[in-house]
Design goal:
The complex is a heterotrimer of chains A (about 475), B (about 375) and C (about 270).
Chain A lengths: L3 E6 L3 H13 L4 E6 L11 E3 L6 E3 L5 E3 L7 H8 L4 E4 L3 E4 L2 E3 L2 H8 L1 H17 L2 H5 L15 H6 L4 H15 L8 H9 L7 E5 L5 H9 L3 E3 L3 E7 L5 E7 L2 E7 L1 E4 L10 E2 L2 H13 L3 E11 L12 E4 L5 E5 L11 E7 H7 L4 H10 L12 E14 L10 H5 L9 E3 L9 H20 L15 H8 L9
Parallel strand pairs in A: 1-2, 1-14, 2-10, 7-17, 11-15, 14-21
Antiparallel strand pairs in A: 3-4, 5-9, 6-9, 7-8, 11-12, 12-13, 16-19, 16-20, 17-18, 18-19
Helix pairs in contact in A: 1-9, 1-14, 3-4, 7-8, 14-15
Chain B lengths: L3 H24 L9 H22 L4 H25 L11 H15 L4 H22 L5 E2 L2 E2 L5 H11 L4 H4 L1 H13 L14 H20 L7 H5 L10 H24 L7 H12 L1 H23 L13 H25 L4 H9 L1
Chain C lengths: L17 E8 L6 E6 L7 E5 L9 E7 L6 H11 L7 E5 L2 E6 L2 E6 L1 H29 L2 H12 L3 H5 L1 H25 L9 H12 L2 H62 L1
Parallel strand pairs in C: 4-7
Antiparallel strand pairs in C: 1-3, 1-4, 2-3, 5-6, 6-7
The chains are: A alpha/beta (about 475), B mainly alpha (about 375), C alpha+beta (about 270).
């Protein structure tokens, strides 16, 4: 009985989660080879350490979304399964016009009762549009109202008070990672409603989010090849998939029974998909999701926690850079940690500022602090910058959601064993990438179980991997749209 | 826990018993209070069973253990009663069925029935009360008595009938007295765990006692107007042998009323605190009541039998005619006083007694 | 009606500072003024006692109107006030308010416009805290009897049947505690409010700091244990009583049969004798 060879391209969360799920559920022999172009695993989940002080910070994915109060939350279950402790994250304050605005009372004092009324009305409309159950539904196409696919700017423009409009836009800008007109109403509202615990709450992994890919990698029984950039993918004459990789100048070809492309949408353009059909399908696939969004992470360690008493939550919003999230990185660590602040700059501002040097960006970050924090400069120890251009994808308005089949198997006719996995196929979150990984992985498990050694007539026993895979297996694709 | 009222009442019963027995057995005189001692004694024995079992429960002894001890004590009294008949009276009187065998039987019965509601026990007493005259009729009571004395043959039917209905102190109806005593004790001496802080009123006891007395008087009054054979067979007037309905109800009434009044006066209001000597004497006599019962019989009967054997034709030659009342009366008082002194010494020096023998054998 | 005055506060305190001695009652009576109306099902009012009223207060609330709640000297004085009798007072900083919490005492420094809402909130929360504390204390008193009462929960005998009133009383008291706990549950477990107000933020934070939800969960679990035992005791008592009544009827029948047997026996014995 020959073991199936499975190639996973991309050592980020998508690739690792796919490999982990296959390993967990497959009941037939297989071998996984994980190909990663860089020298590390984890992709956008990146926890870094300062050079001069013993402090770590999140340089990539900032927080994880918690849906467990609504129903199944596979990512939270996975984190618990890996034994990783979590730290809750909360933040309700926005600094607007150099003054904090933490609640409706502040809004009332600052802008008057009409503003409060306008904000409450926007809030009510948002909740009418998307209920917590609809928010929990992973597929935007499940949201019943077709107008939900319009641009989010439409909803913002309906707010009569300009200050409130500006407040809402800035409050969610760092989550949107793009401008309101570039994303759908559904996506915009979701990023607004995520601040309400009835819809979702946030958490991080205590000690650093990178513990997640690290733990996954530890448990993998797979061949992991770092610094192996995938140059091309094509189908062989025998019907298998040949993957050409480059490592330190030399090329090698590996063939696999199934290949999972777990790369960011932007990174896929560096891979050549050979064969007209495949190339065309992958081009269409990339184009479908080519709505790049950008992030800049500026993180600064200080000698003193000068924001203590003023910033008492895990993060707050600044009205700088079009709306930027300021994290108290030390709040992620139980018992507190070294004083570290992190800026998450998103969208056009991130793209515009990406060209500046690290020192310039650090200076800009310090300038963005409210005046009552300006004295913090005297305590700066070290600053770091991470650029994530084209790293995520926004969901533009009017975008028709594709079937899950289509998303994960771009070319099912001649290349049925080539899969795509990524957060961009869902909602650009870690939760989304796990959903994507699980979908593809269970499909592969099902294929694995159906290889010729198995009897096709024998139904799978309840609870076995094949039965579970059969549950996830989609209906056959009769025709491409 | 000791109750002085019970001690006083028991001492009264003992005193009456000694006096009646001395006067009757030595001088042949039937004194008016004859017939008061035995029922009072039986009533108090039922009351005592209740108090005694309560004290065992307070010590944490299980119900099962209490039952076993009570059965053993009951059997001890029963066997003692038989032995008493043989050794103190005469072998021919073995199955006379006196008060000890009845109280022993009552103790065994109450060992099993004590947990039942008082209402049910009262029902049992009522059934016994109603059944007794009919059993006597069925057994032909008069045929078991000759010249005012119980005589039966040593055959199984006679023994059983005597035990149940025709003997001196048969079960039917005498077992009513200890059971009613137990019911009165259940009412008055409730368990501390029941949560009732204040002592219960004795008024219901006294009321029932008065009712019983009234019934007794009523039966006595209407007896002459009743048609035959009711006055001869059922409502027979105030008789101890057999224990007529008037006698039973009357003595129950006297027991309940006297105990109720004494309990309030002596136990709750401490009326005798100024005369501790009385309390001491009554306590001593009450503590050694069983020993007194046996001893006083030995003291006046054995000399009678010995004298009769030596100076007469048979042991019972001088029974009822040994001496005049002027002698037997003071002798009775002297016996009472001597017992009182003796038992005080016994208690002080912890000499063995019939009670200690019972405890040693049965507990 | 005289309003409460800061008779125990020196004049150096900011103008308008006041200490409220608070009790929780159904009716105001002549006791004082209503500081807060607790939610309807609780049927209670937080009443600020009048000066000179010797009624022991259930909690004390210091209210300091001040534009700058972060004034260090003022904070230190409030800490000193709240720490009397308390072990380690908690201080919670909010945008536009400072709150202090100790055993039986609470304090707030905030601008006048926000003070009233915070006073009401603190009075409410103090009531919940008092209720939870009282239930914890009452429940603690039941533990020593629990072991003894666990036996009757499985099997009852005559002696433990006599204690049924006491068992019943304990069960009733436990149900009362459960009712008290359930009554405040909706307000303690009230979900996160969004968009938040200052009061809702304070409420959430304080409830979290005081571990109210956690304590309630523990109390519920403990009450489950107690209720299970006493419920079982109740079932056993009912069964025992029913069987006793049944036995009683049987005993009455047995007595009647015994009486009949006695008559028949006597008939046989007399025939045998004759």
């Amino acid at each position: 009985m020959r073991a199936w060879e499975i190639g996973i391209i991309g050592g980020g969360p998508g690739g690792l989660m796919t490999a982990y799920t296959i390993q967990k559920w497959a009941n037939d022999p297989f071998r996984i080879t994980l190909l990663e172009a860089s020298d590390r695993l984890g992709g956008k989940i990146l926890t870094r350490q300062f050079d001069s002080v013993s402090a770590h910070y999140e340089a990539g994915a900032a927080e994880i979304y918690d849906y467990s109060h609504m129903g199944e939350d596979p990512l939270k279950e996975l984190i618990a399964e890996l034994g990783l402790p979590i730290a809750r994250m909360e933040g309700s304050t926005a600094v607007v016009g150099d003054r904090p605005l933490a609640n409706l009372d502040d809004m009332h004092d600052r802008y008057g009762p009409d503003a409060v009324k306008a904000f409450a009305e926007f809030n009510r409309r948002a909740k009418d549009r998307i209920t917590p159950q609809e928010f929990y539904s992973p597929d935007p196409e499940a949201v019943g109202d077709p107008s939900i696919r319009r641009g989010f700017d439409v909803a913002l423009n309906a707010i009569p008070v300009p200050e409130v409009r500006s407040y809402v836009e800035q409050f969610i800008h760092s989550d949107l990672a793009t401008e309101p007109e570039n994303t759908s109403l559904a996506y915009g509202l979701q990023n607004y409603l995520m601040n309400d615990h009835a819809y979702m709450s946030l958490y991080g992994i205590a000690g650093g989010n990178e513990a997640l890919p690290r733990e996954l990698a530890k448990r993998l029984n797979a061949e992991i090849r770092l610094r192996h950039r995938v140059a091309s993918i094509e189908k062989t004459a025998e019907g298998r998939m040949a993957v050409t990789t480059e490592c330190r100048g030399s090329r090698s070809v590996s063939t696999f029974d199934a290949v999972v492309v777990a790369l960011p949408n932007a990174a896929m353009r560096n891979v050549v998909f050979r064969g007209n059909r495949l190339a065309s399908a992958m081009a269409e696939h990339r184009a479908e999701y080519d709505h790049p969004a950008h992030y800049l992470r500026v993180t600064i360690a200080f000698r003193k926690k000068f924001w203590h008493g003023k910033l008492n939550e895990s993060y707050c919003m600044l009205d700088q850079f079009g709306g930027c999230c300021l994290y108290d990185e030390s709040s992620r660590n139980p018992g507190g940690g070294y004083p570290v602040l992190g800026w998450l700059i998103a969208g056009e501002a991130a793209e515009a500022l990406a060209g500046l040097s690290d020192e310039q960006l650090i200076e800009k970050a310090l300038d963005s602090l409210p005046s009552y924090f300006s004295h913090g400069r005297e305590w700066i120890v070290e600053g770091r910058v991470h650029r994530w251009l084209d790293a995520v994808n926004a969901i533009p308005g009017g975008l028709q959601a594709r079937t899950l089949d289509w998303r994960h198997r771009p070319e099912p006719v001649d290349h049925p064993n080539l899969f795509a996995v990524g957060d961009y196929l869902f909602d650009s979150t870690l939760n989304g990438v796990l959903d994507s990984a699980n979908y593809a992985a269970m499909w592969i498990v099902s294929l694995l179980a159906d290889t010729p050694k198995e009897s096709h007539d024998r139904p799978a026993a309840l609870g076995t991997p094949r039965a579970i895979a059969d549950k996830y297996r989609p209906a056959p694709v009769l025709a491409r749209r | 826990m000791r109750y002085a009222s019970i001690d006083v009442l028991r001492t009264v019963a003992i005193a009456l018993m000694i006096l009646v027995h001395f006067l009757e057995n030595l001088s042949g005189v039937t004194w008016a209070p004859a017939g008061l001692g035995a029922p009072l004694f039986a009533f108090l024995s039922g009351l005592n069973i209740r108090i005694w079992t309560l004290s065992l429960e307070a010590k944490g002894i299980t119900d099962e253990a209490i039952r076993r001890i009570a059965v053993r004590r009951g059997l001890f009294l029963f066997v003692l009663g038989i032995a008493f008949n043989v050794l103190v009276w005469l072998p021919s009187d073995t199955f006379n069925w006196d008060v000890l065998t009845m109280i022993g039987t009552a103790m065994v019965a109450l060992a099993f029935l004590r947990g039942l509601p008082s209402g049910f026990l009262a029902f049992v007493c009522a059934v016994v009360f109603v059944l007794s005259p009919f059993l006597r009729i069925q057994a032909d009571y008069a045929s078991h008595w000759t010249n005012g004395y119980f005589e039966s043959e040593t055959t199984l039917p006679d023994v059983l009938i005597g035990y149940l209905s025709t003997g001196y102190i048969p079960l039917f109806p005498w077992i009513i007295f200890p059971i009613v005593g137990h019911i009165a004790g259940s009412y008055l001496f409730h368990r501390p765990t029941d949560g009732e802080a204040t002592p219960r009123s004795v008024r219901p006891l006294v009321t029932y006692g008065v009712c019983f007395l009234a019934i007794s008087v009523f039966l006595r009054v209407i007896r002459d107007a009743l048609p035959d054979p009711i006055p001869t067979k059922l409502v027979m007037g105030w008789t101890m042998f057999p224990a007529s309905p008037e006698y039973v109800t009357g003595l129950l009434g006297i027991a309940l009323v006297s105990f109720g009044i004494l309990h309030v006066g002596i136990d709750r209001r401490d009326c005798l605190r100024r005369v501790p000597a009385i309390l001491n004497v009554t306590r001593t006599m009450s503590q050694y009541s069983l020993t007194v019962y046996l001893l006083h019989h030995i003291l006046h009967l054995w000399p009678l039998w010995i004298y009769g054997t030596l100076f007469g034709t048979e042991a019972t030659e001088f029974w009822h005619s040994a001496m005049p009342v002027a002698v037997s009366g003071p002798l009775a008082l002297g016996c009472f006083a001597a017992c009182s002194v003796l038992f005080r010494q016994m208690r002080r020096r912890e000499w063995p007694s019939v009670e200690s023998l019972m405890r040693w054998l049965c507990d | 009606m005289r309003l409460p005055t800061n008779t125990d506060l020196p004049p150096s305190w900011p103008a308008g500072s006041v200490t409220h001695r608070v009790v929780y009652r159904v009716e105001v009576g002549a006791a004082g003024r209503i500081l807060a109306e607790l939610p309807f099902p609780l049927n209670r009012r937080a009443i600020a006692l009048l000066s000179g009223d010797a009624t022991p207060a259930e909690m004390e609330l210091l209210s300091v109107p001040f534009e700058n709640p972060e004034d260090a000297e003022l904070i230190a004085r409030v800490r000193e006030w709240i720490a009397v009798g308390a072990s380690a007072p908690q201080m919670i900083t909010f945008q536009g308010a400072q709150l202090f919490w100790g055993a039986g005492r609470a304090a707030v420094i905030a601008p006048q416009s926000r003070l009233t809402a915070l006073e009401v909130l603190l009075a409410e929360l103090a009531y919940f805290e008092l209720e939870i504390g009282a239930i914890e204390k009452s429940l603690g008193g039941f533990w020593p009897d629990l072991e003894a009462d666990a036996g009757p929960a499985f099997e009852l005998d005559e002696r433990t049947h006599r204690n049924r009133k006491k068992l019943g009383e304990r069960f009733r008291q436990l149900l009362g505690l459960r009712a008290r706990l359930t009554r405040i549950l909706p307000f303690v477990q009230t979900p996160h409010v969004y968009p938040p107000t200052l009061a809702s933020q304070v409420s959430e934070r304080l409830r979290e700091r005081l571990r109210m939800e956690h304590r309630i969960e523990i109390l519920q679990q403990q009450l489950d244990v107690f209720e299970r035992i006493y419920d079982a005791c109740g079932t056993r008592v009912s069964e025992f009583t029913a069987s006793k009544k049944g036995h009683l009827l049987e005993m009455i029948i047995i007595v009647m049969l015994a009486a009949q047997t006695m008559l028949v026996l006597f008939e046989v014995l007399t025939i045998a004798r004759n």
